[in-house]
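Chain A, query sequence.
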Amino acid sequence: MNWQEIKLSENGTFFNFQGNKVFDKTFINALKFHTPGFAPVQDKDGWYHININGEALYKERYKRTFGFYFNKAAVITDEGWFHIDDKGLRLCKETYVWIGNYQEDKCSVRDFNNNYFHIDPFGKRIYSENYFYAGDYKDGYACVKGTDGWKHIDNRGADLNNKRFEDLGIFHKGYAIAKDLTGWFHIDKNGVGLYSQRFHSVEPFYNGVSLVTNDNGTKALINESGKLVGNI
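Chain A, predicted structure.
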């Protein structure tokens, strides 16, 4: 049975394979199967993970479990959050108020002082700075917010371009959305705007075209030079 063909029921309490219920189990809650073929489920004893045969991966039960990313899953206990491996073994001794999912061998976490930062696969901090927020890494860069605004950092935690913004998005095909005091626009990896216009909101470029919203609420399409290519 291929885990990719196992589907979660519409009410999120059991699984189907080729239209038939499998495992002969109904859960209180369940999430869909995820790479490498495990699913988070909840029964009367708590949350845990099952394999494609409906068997629990380990004996422990948690307040909440989430999907595996790069063979690591976030779980919640009364004490806080941490990651486990596919055998249910805890991966590091530190416990956090919140943890994200590993992306590119790095994970965003929030400690008990409400500081955000990133840790490596062994649970070690990859830099010393603390932030108000730290997002997932994508293509080697992450967005973080500090006392002086939003910025991009590289995979060592170093400042990418020494530019600060009111708000910021991750890079997508070399460009990121950013906001300054006058509105939203697109920037390159040097933090330089691709055009002079500012908008109420912008989306990442999709095959060279971005959907933008003007201050009056109308929507339009622009290319990577900021030129209008269509109205919506």
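The two ends are 45 Å apart (CA to CA). The first strand starts at residue 6 and ends at 8.
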